[in-house]
Amino acid sequence: MWEIDKKSKQPIYRQISDQLREKIMKGEYTPGSVLPTERKLAEQIGVNRSTVVHAYDELTSIGLIERKRGSGTKVSTQKWGISPAGSTNWKAYVDSGSFLPPHPLIQKIHELSHNKSLWNLAGGELGPDLFPDSLLKPQYEKILGAEELFEDEDPQGYRPLRETISHHMKEVYHVDTTADSIMITSGAQQAIYLMTQCLLSPGDAIAIEAPSYYYSLPLFQSAGLRIFALPIDEEGINPEDVKVLYQKHRIKLVFLNPIFQNPTSVSLSEDRKKELVDLCASLSIPIVEDNPFSLLSYDEESGSLMKSKDQTGNVLYLGSLSKTVGSNIRIGWLIAPKTVIQRLMDARNQMDFGLSIFPQLVADHFMSSGKYQEHVDRLVAELKDRRDRAIEILERDFKDYVTFQTPHGGLYIWLRLKTPIQDSKLLHQAANHGVIIMPGSVLGSSEGYIRLTFARLAKDELEAALEALRQTFHSLIK
After folding, report:
1. Which of 145, 169, 251, 264 has the fewest CB atoms in 10 Å of its CB?
2. Does the CA dihedral 96-99-103-104 come out positive or negative?
3. Cα separation of 438 and 263, whole Å?
4. Residue 309: partners with Cβ closer than 8 Å, 6 or more residues away
5. What is this structure's pTM?
């Protein structure tokens, strides 16, 4: 907010320069940040452009700002803090922090996602119309008066929910576990973050599928880990590649999404699952099995879990409700040896990442009521319809632009462009045509790929979004 007193004896340009200097000293404009153009600032304040030029000239003369033709006006980074009062260089602090920002294209996608006029084919979540609100509402009403809301929190998670999950794992996946080996989390990412902090050290090597949504997360780089890629073919990763990485780099953990993998929707073959579990057990390399999609199977059985083949406790299993219930209930769980559970639980307590009891109660009531499976059955039918419609349109209208394999489950179609386009250019042009896309490079692939989500939009909206994408390709590929 600018306060200009035109009746003051102090010249207007000096009032502007003084106020701008104060904003810089307070950190409202950090070193290296771009200031408004002379014309724009003049319009904001309601003065002549020449007045702003005079104010900028004064700040330039004392080294507080820098002006370069073609680059605009920026707060100085070279002479920061020359004022008598001094100031903290917050940009230097931010840039030197260990926790890294997301990929620039991810930041741009997040920014575009706030524009509700754009069709979103980029997001990895269910559309709100697929949330089981009508089924959850009765659960909310029951829970609001529950005594558990006012009891001391269990740091491992609400025990009845852990028991419900233990039963779910046995009935659905044939995995025997107990409530004591389960830790409730706010989702898979919290569990992954805790594992990077508690089970690994800076400089340790890990292996991740390529491509993978893990590459869009700064968690691993922020922890100082060395990341090595495991290429995916039609049967998933090759266990032999894990062995080679262990011999060359002594990898400490393998992170996998083996069923309807994000973003390729490929599933690891049963033979490779068994081979990989046995290999990693023999080399003492823990496997983190991230399984958000196995219930979303459209054409065939999703196959067994790696955890069901684990005889030594070497597979750390991550489950979640986010891909079946939606983002309104952020509940996940980790199945691991008790020593691991205890270590991660202690770390979470130190960080004060406590879990609200309310969503845990909702999840427990919902999963144990029989309504959860009823919802999943309806969800799978609706998602299959959306997938089929998306495939129909892609086969009809996109044969000149992309190739793909029909996914048998999950939420994504992995598109390979016949004519590669620079990802930043593709994202920008798609937004201009009214649609948001997820370029493959932020997921660890080379340019020339797109992850298309068919779960966020109803079928008529999906048709409109795909038409916008077709127009994007048509404008870029002549």
Report:
1. 145
2. negative
3. 10
4. 273, 274, 277, 315
5. 0.81
